[in-house]
Amino acid sequence: MQEPPHEKNLTISVTKVNEERLNAVTATSMATSLSGKVAGLRISNASGTPGNAANVLLRADNNLNNVGSGPLILIDGVIFQGSLSDLNADDVENMEIIKGAAASALYGSRAGNGVIAITTKRGSRAELNKVNVNVRNEYGIQQLPKLLDLATHHPYKLASDYQSYAGKYTKYDGVTYPSDYIGAGYNPSIKGNRAIDADHYLDNPFGVNTNQQEEFFRTGNNMTNYVSLGSRSNRSSVFVSFENNKQSGIVNNTDGFSRQNFRINYDLNVNKWLTLSSSNLFINTATNYPGSAGSVFFNIVLAEPDANLYQSNPDGQPYFLKINQFNGETINPLYNLYKVQRDNKSRSWIGNYKANLKLQNGQT
Fold first, then answer.
1. Disulfide check for 311: which of 36, 143, 185, 201 has CB 3.0–4.6 Å away?
2. Is 338 helix (H, G, I), strand (E, B) or coil?
């Protein structure tokens, strides 16, 4: 009898990651759970948007995030077209990462950039005639680690009595303010324009010095609720799980990301020669993006420290668009977040159904 090949003779490199390693550190998705656990596997995010699809590179160019250069993802033998960020790690029994180019011989040309094969949990793990229950609830917060250092002074000439209005508004020379003006931001009754001081230095203080980044950003939160049930009898086994994941992010007036995963895996021994099994996963995701995308961050950097982001419109609606009396190009970043809604919703169903027939007895 020919001796079976040793592992060192394999033309492919296979790395196996089990459940214990995946859940060693709490993660919001499969992508973050797998990060740092496999040599040569690069996981990155192009943005900090909650729920953003992670870029996964196994064998492709590690310098450029090329579209279509990610590995082939299999879930219980079914090709998954989505992202690892859509999956939860709690349902995973183990993962096999195939890095060799010869993976194409096993899975076809689509596996040229490697393969991530995911095997999910089944009820066969449970004790006979007993129900295993697993519940996990997590809550965390999200904050900016550092704010930008923005200008707190300006080069414009101040009125001779500007100090009397400190804490209310910046009183510029050559500008006439209405008698009832209390520093509420833009006012159409203000006349005149500010002018550059003779020395041209940015050493004149604003009357109000608010850190607009603190006014704009909030403390976000992320929450995960997970429950699973596993049961096994003499002839059948079932595994059912549900996960609810929400990430609000740090941007005001933006809901962020939410994902609900529902799984049911079922196995049935009909008789000695027929076994049926099914794997089912339903994924529901919703993402609310910041209105006007990245321009809101551009406007918050340009906002002067005496601007009032929370000034209301004359009709009572919040967030007056114009926050700079003397520069019409600077607009309130909270306005577009309140007015513009950018939503992306998706639903997907992944199913795998198998029938194993044993037509005759044989020796193994």
1. 185
2. helix
SS3 of residue 204 by DSSP: strand
**Mean pLDDT (the chain, rounded):** 85
For tokens 């159904």, the residue is: 353
**Whole-number Å distance between alpha carbons of 166 and 163:** 5
Give the C-alpha separation, 246 to 43, whole Å. 21
Residue 6: CB atoms within 10 A of its CB come to 7
The confidence score (pLDDT) of residue 2 equals: 45
Q: Contact at 8 Å (CB) between 335 and 309?
A: no
Q: Work out the number of other CB atoms within 10 angstroms of the CB of residue 242.
A: 16
Instruction: Tell me if 260 sits within 8 A of 242, measured CB to CB.
Output: yes
Read off the pLDDT of residues 256-312 as tens digits, 9 standing for 90 and up: 899 999 999 999 999 888 999 999 999 999 998 887 666 788 888 889 999 999 988
Cα distance between residue 18 and residue 30, in whole Å:
13
Nearest 5°: phi and psi at 317? -70, 150
pTM over 0.85: no
DSSP 217: B
167-187 pLDDT tens trace: 999 999 999 999 888 776 788
Cβ–Cβ under 8 Å, residues 71 and 59: yes
Give the type of residue at 287.
T
How far apart are the C-alpha atoms of 316 and 313, rounded to whole Å?
5
Q: What percent of the chain has pLDDT over 90?
A: 40
| Torsion from C-alpha of 192, 194, 195, 201, nearest 10 degrees | 170
CB 266 within 8 A of CB 241: no
Whether 264 and 242 have beta carbons less than 8 Å apart is answered as no
Q: What are the φ and ψ backbone dihedral angles of 19, each rounded to 5 degrees?
A: -60, -40
Identify the sign of the CA torsion 322, 324, 325, 326: negative
